[in-house]
Amino acid sequence: MVVDYRYHTPEVYQSLKSMLASLKRQGFKLIVNGGDVFVSETLKDGSAKNLYDGINQEDVFTTYDFNKKKYGRQAKKNTDYYERYLKQAKKAGLDVYIVEYRAGRELSKRIGAYCERHGYKWYNADSIELN
Fold first, then answer.
1. Which of 55, 13, 11 has the alpha carbon at shortest distance from 31?
2. For 7-58, what is each residue's pLDDT tens digit?
3. Is 126 in contact with 116 (CB distance < 8 Å)?
């Protein structure tokens, strides 16, 4: 399910919560990919753990410019934001996954150590196509 931050309205929020709750009642393990605005709201209102089991966040440490078709390093302010967000999700009892793109050797070591310290799992994709 794709959730776009541009449609951040009370109606969309409640609809998403309703859909996720229905899927959860059916026994599905649910991981929200991206959706930090939605996830942050559910963390605030205490409903996150009842709606989904974990989150996946792309581009915490790396980034991809779709216009230039170029891989790069995420801006520090964005990394800091995502680190705070992931910590909140983990504290709420959610599983945390990270997907990065073409993290080099040194950055991969840093990401691996960071994830091990915090109990996150991560994947370093060779390309934006996730292969």
1. 55
2. 678 888 999 999 999 999 999 999 999 999 999 999 999 999 999 999 999 9
3. no
Number of domains in the chain: 1
What's the token pair of residue 110? 């840093």
Beta bridge partners of 98: 57, 122
Is the residue at 55 inside a domain?
Answer: yes
State the Cα torsion 7-12-16-19 to the nearest 10°: -130
Tokens of 125: 């994709």
Residue 129 — φ and ψ, nearest 5°?
Answer: -80, 0
Q: Residue 85: which H helix or E strand, with range? A: helix 76-91
- Closest-CA residue to 81 (of 21, 15, 37, 127): 37
Pairing of strands 95-101, 54-58: parallel
Full residue range of the structural domain in which residue 75 is found: 31-125
> What number of other Cβ atoms are within 10 A of residue 67's Cβ?
5
